């Protein structure tokens, strides 16, 4: 174990350098003495050289030992601290950090460790928040069901179809939330199966708008789709792309007042296609933009699930976009100025045309 330790190896290398240096000097001095010193003075010269080399070897050994011990301590102290902190993080102390050493190479390692610890602490905080959010979201439909059941048992509520329908509504809310959580888990774990193909994005957007037509008519909203249907082709999964668009356009419908306008602009950007969903809705505060895609985040915490969704639709949409090699961004000029959600997906590869004969 001692031979495998870094401290032993540093000291051993220093001593090896001293031994090699002394042996080299002895051999070199002896060869030079044979050629340059008279025979009658050779023994005296060799004795003087031996004494000088002995003193030099002792001094070099002492200096080498001290230098190697200090060097080993300089290297091993941060490593020992790194080991201790790693064990504390493994035990759940995610606030653990290590001091930054003076050596540049060790400082890089320390910075990387602290960044890792900070990321783990953030993940742990998100896990705690997620558990609290899930419990909060499940509590509402369960409380409703419990109230109906207690009313039926106490005879306060009649067991008529209206009561049963209300209970069924709460069960459906609960089921939708569980389905959303299951889908989020699969998406974040990368377990969603994709079937990418070349598809025309403009007809797909128009189909999604047609699907949401009842809501458009009810709110007297105008939807415009701008894009060249003959040119804009994606390489993506049609069903997952439609799911993302339903979420983005559905959000625009939900947060745009009556007689408002929603514009879906589709344009090529380098090797991608951008689908921007712009609305004239309530807008988003600047401080809320960085958190829109986090689980269960709502700009207005007072909104219920019935009016504001489950709070994980955008999270699922963004992970689906990532899985297909794309991205989703959000922008807004502020409350009352509408918002823009931009979906970016890869363009379909252009077919190679054979040269004309």
What is the CA–CA distance across the termini? 76 Å
Broad shape: elongated
Helix coverage percent: 55-70%
- Low-confidence sequence ranges: 303-308
Number of helices: 9
The run of helices and strands is HHHHEHHEEHEEHHEE
Largest beta sheet, briefly? 5 strands, mixed
By secondary-structure content and strand pairing, the structural class works out as alpha+beta
Sheet with the most strands: spatial strand order:
2-4-5-7-6
Proportion of beta-strand residues: 5-15%
The count of strands amounts to 7
Q: Would you tell me the overall average pLDDT?
A: 82
Radius of gyration: 36 Å
Structure description:
About 60% of the residues lie in helices and about 10% in strands. The protein is an alpha+beta fold and about 350 residues long. The strands form two sheets. A five-stranded mixed β-sheet has the order 2-4-5-7-6, covered by helices on one side. The chain has a two-stranded antiparallel ribbon with strand order 1-3. Helix 7 packs antiparallel against helix 9. Mean pLDDT is about 80; it is low at about 305-310.
């Amino acid at each position: 174990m001692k031979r495998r330790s870094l401290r032993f190896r540093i000291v051993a290398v220093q001593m090896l350098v001293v031994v090699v240096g002394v042996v080299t000097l002895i051999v070199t001095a002896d060869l030079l003495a044979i050629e340059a010193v008279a025979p009658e003075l050779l023994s005296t010269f060799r004795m003087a050289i031996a004494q000088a080399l002995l003193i030099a070897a002792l001094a070099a050994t002492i200096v080498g030992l001290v230098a190697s011990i200090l060097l080993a301590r300089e290297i091993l102290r941060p490593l020992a601290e790194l080991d201790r902190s790693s064990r504390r993080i493994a035990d759940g102390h995610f606030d653990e950090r290590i001091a930054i050493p003076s050596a540049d190479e060790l400082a890089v390692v320390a910075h990387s460790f602290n960044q890792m610890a900070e990321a783990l602490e953030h993940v742990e905080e998100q896990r705690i928040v997620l558990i609290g959010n899930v419990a909060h979201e499940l509590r509402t439909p369960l409380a409703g069901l419990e109230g109906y059941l207690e009313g039926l048992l106490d005879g306060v509520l009649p067991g008529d179809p209206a009561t049963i329908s209300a209970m069924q509504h709460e069960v459906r809310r609960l089921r939708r939330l569980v389905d959303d959580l299951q889908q989020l888990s699969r998406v974040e774990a990368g377990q969603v199966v994709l079937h990418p193909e070349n598809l025309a994005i403009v007809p797909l957007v128009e189909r999604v708008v047609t699907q949401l037509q009842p809501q458009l008519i009810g709110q007297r909203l105008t939807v415009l789709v701008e894009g060249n249907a003959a040119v804009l082709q994606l390489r993506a999964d049609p069903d997952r792309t439609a799911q993302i668009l339903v979420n983005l356009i559905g959000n625009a419908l939900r947060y745009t007042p009556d007689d408002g306008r929603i514009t879906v602009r589709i344009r090529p950007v380098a090797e991608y296609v951008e689908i921007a969903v712009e609305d004239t809705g309530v807008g988003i505060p600047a401080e809320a933009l960085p958190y829109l895609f986090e689980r269960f985040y709502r700009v207005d915490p007072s909104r219920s699930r019935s009016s504001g969704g489950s709070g994980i639709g955008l999270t699922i949409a963004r992970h689906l976009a990532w899985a297909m090699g794309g991205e989703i961004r959000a922008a807004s000029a502020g409350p009352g100025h509408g918002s823009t959600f931009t979906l970016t997906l890869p363009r379909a590869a252009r077919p190679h045309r054979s040269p004309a004969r």
